[in-house]
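User: Need the bound-state model for zinc ion:
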Amino acid sequence: MRSIIQCPHCGFKAVEDTLATELLADYRCLACAKLLQAAGADPCCIFCSFGTVPCVQSKNKGGKVSRRG
Ligand SMILES: [Zn+2]
Ligand SMILES: [Zn+2]
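Assistant: Bound-state model below.
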């Protein structure tokens, strides 16, 4: 699954594979070399924060989650 990560600083779009790449907590923009860090209400990874397609693990969040702990 390819996700397009758009840099909030310069608007550069980079295509990364969410399957080939492990969950990234940060990502360095190829254009402006600034470090993007997972942020927002649900900081999972840079795919969930900046990508057009969230990471694979985020799919498991759908529906009812009944995890104790
Ligand atoms: Zn950038
Ligand atoms: Zn994620």
